[in-house]
Amino acid sequence: MSISALHHVQLAMPVGGEDAARRFYGELLGLPEVPKPAELAKRGGCWFEDGDIRIHMGVEADFRPARKAHPAFQVSDLAAIRDRMIAGGVEVKDDNALEGFSRFFVADPFGNRIEILQPL
After folding, report:
1. Where are the alpha helices (DSSP H) in 38-92?
2. Do residues 52 and 5 lie in contact, with contact meaning Cβ atoms separated by under 8 Å?
3. Can you give the residue ranges of the VOC domain (predicted)?
4. Hey, what domains does the chain have and what are their CATH numbers?
5. Which residues of 68-84 are buried (b: 16+ CB within 10 A; e: fewer)?
C-alpha cells in the first residue's frame, strides 16, 4: 500500500463565509468553484478545483483559523499573484527562508494561513 496522490485539502470557515471564500479563492487565486455533491451541499461551504488542485471550504460551527498549518500553492508568476492580493486588500508577508523558492504568506478572509511560492 502507498499513497498515490493528495486528493484535496479542506480548510474551515465560519457559517456564512461562502461569499468571502468565493472572492478569495475564486477571484484572487483564480480557482474555479465546482458544485458540491447534493448531500454535502446541505452542510454549507464551497469547493474550488482546477485539475489536481482541490480546496474544499467546510463550515465549522466552532470555527478557529489555522494560523500555522497551511496549504502552499506553487505558482508560475509570483509577482502577478502578489500584486493581485495587494490590489484585493490582502496583507502580504514576504518570506525568503526557504532555499530555492521565492514566497509569501497571506491569510484568507477567515485567518487561515496560505503560502504562495515559486521556484527560483
Report:
1. 38-41, 78-87
2. yes
3. 5-119
4. 9-119 (3.10.180.10)
5. eebbebebeebeebbee
CB atoms within 10 A of CB 28: 19
pTM of the predicted model as reported, rounded to 2 decimal places: 0.93
CB 43 within 8 A of CB 37: no
Taking phi over 0 as left and psi of -120 to 50 as alpha, with beta for the rest, 111 belongs to left
- φ, ψ dihedrals at 113, nearest 5°: -75, 135
42 secondary structure, DSSP code? T
Backbone angles phi, psi at 14, to 5 degrees: -75, 165
pLDDT in tens, 76-105: 999 999 999 999 999 999 998 999 999 999
Return the C-alpha cell found at 24: 478569495
Which of 22, 6, 7 lies closest to 110 in space, CA to CA?
Answer: 22
